[in-house]
Design brief:
Strand content: 15-25%
Number of strands: 3
Radius of gyration: 16 Å
Shape: globular
Structural class: alpha/beta
Length: 139
């Protein structure tokens, strides 16, 4: 399926390869889906070969999964992160959502600090989303 995508898209490389909705099913599911079978290692090799330009993930799940995957940054060097963000979830998330304030704070502690918000690569959220401002920028 991965290799067929190049043919279907008629391209030699993919600009943004997203591991979609990691976290659903917990860390055991994440490890089975991407680590134990060598998938993440394969994707990192594809990025090194230039067939993937930017490797990242979208997150929907628990804090423990987010923390573990973000801690993999030293090995994986995630190029972008997309978080689930509903305005009501900024501080009062429930069910399978995580407070967006927590997610942003954790991103700011890593190499993403000051650079990566949402799906933006290397651009602050104000530039990408027009009128929306990160809470720290509205004071």
């Amino acid at each position: 399926m991965y290799r067929q995508s190049f043919e279907d898209l008629q391209v030699d490389y993919i600009d943004y390869y997203l591991l979609h909705s990691i976290g659903n099913g917990g860390i055991v599911t994440f490890r089975a889906r991407y680590i134990d079978n060598g998938m993440l290692d394969f994707l990192m090799q594809e990025r090194e070969a230039g067939r993937i330009r930017n490797l990242g993930f979208s997150f929907h799940g628990t804090v423990s999964v987010f923390d573990e995957v973000l801690a993999m940054h030293e090995k994986v060097h995630w190029d972008f992160v997309q978080i689930q963000l509903n305005y009501v979830d900024w501080r009062h998330a429930s069910a399978r959502n995580v407070n967006a304030g927590y997610l942003y704070a954790e991103l700011e502690k890593t190499a993403y600090s000051g650079h990566y918000y949402g799906t933006a690569v290397g651009r602050p959220i104000v530039e990408c989303a027009g009128s929306y401002r990160h809470p720290a920028q509205t004071a």
